[in-house]
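Take a look at the protein record below and tell me what you see:
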Amino acid sequence: MNNKSLSNLFKGDKVIWMVFFLLCMISITEVYSASSSLSYKGGNYWSPIIYHCSILAVGTAMMVVVLNIKCRYFKLITPVLLAVSFLMLLWVLIAGQTTNGANRWISFAGIQFQPSEIAKGALVLAIAQILSAMQTDHGADRKAFKYILAISGIFILLIVFENLSTAMLISLTVVLMMFVGRVPLNQIGRLLGVAALGIIFIVSMVMIVGDDKKAEDEISPKQNLTERTSAEPQEEAPGLFDKVLHRADTWKARIKKFLSNDYVAPKDYDLDKDAQVAHANIAIASSNVVGKGPGNSNERDFLSQAFSDFIYAIIIEEMGIEGAAIVAFLYIILLFRTGIIANRCENSFPAFLAMGIAFLLVTQALFNMLVAVGLAPVTGQPLPLISKGGTSTIINCVYIGVILSISRSAKKKKTDKTSPIETSGVIA
């Protein structure tokens, strides 16, 4: 294959491509290392990594397809994605499949996936269009705030009861997009004030209503909120009232454990009761600057979600502080490089869309890292493009494809023009 053919294949920003391939290489290495428990249980040493590589291959193919779609066509699919996401979220709320106490999955043609993964992208698309359509010389029109609040509020309410961490992730992304989209700061400030009061109220109600002793998914070492497997038994879906309140038990348990400062003697510590957090801490504590080397983790055999929710802890154990810093730096590069691409856009819609997707991926990565190092309660958020996943990995690849598509059409602005991203003062 000649250079011209390679250039046609790897279209778009080369830095984004580099970050993507590096994250995929880290993913293959660490998932292969962290899947020892799956290999042992399944009796097939290669099956987990073959499955993961197949998912990455499908995701890469989807990414190539998406990056060849012109940005203006993304506007056309927004109403369809919003409608489909809304209907799927309603379906999962009414008749979704429950695993480990969480009712987040639906099944279609034998494929299980979380509708919230699609809803995130649909919401970013919609907000980007609103911000683009209502831009003025002095920033976004004040009515844009109301429209964004209305549409995002509907989706967040449908998600929050079963997937609080995803709802928080979406909320943070929406706020960041409004800030970059030059929504009046007094409107954003009032929103943040109301949100703070709402969080205080919700936490108070959770602590009153919730019963942490019933939170079996929290104390079970088999907990996995990222992806379902066919071997897992399906639980009977709770009633409508239980759907609203049953997650309060888990939330209360996680809040209490995160805020607890009680000293527990080593001989009294129950590793089986709090296996995930305990073994993640052991993995981090047993590491050093350079790590133990890929494939030499000890805690992967004890940490049930080493390949998924807590893969960053395994990265720290095997690759050390340097490796962990490199992984975090790759996401930072992704964010800032996307900002550069957005500043080159002559139109505001692709600029806001690119930044929204970057915020979505990077904030999710931040959530996962904070949980792994014990700075946040367990959320069940995977590490984008690194954690072992199914539909979530494919959708994240599609997100990268959208950024690459925008980078292809982004042109260097004329000196007398200023992009809405640059004008906001967020990215110079």
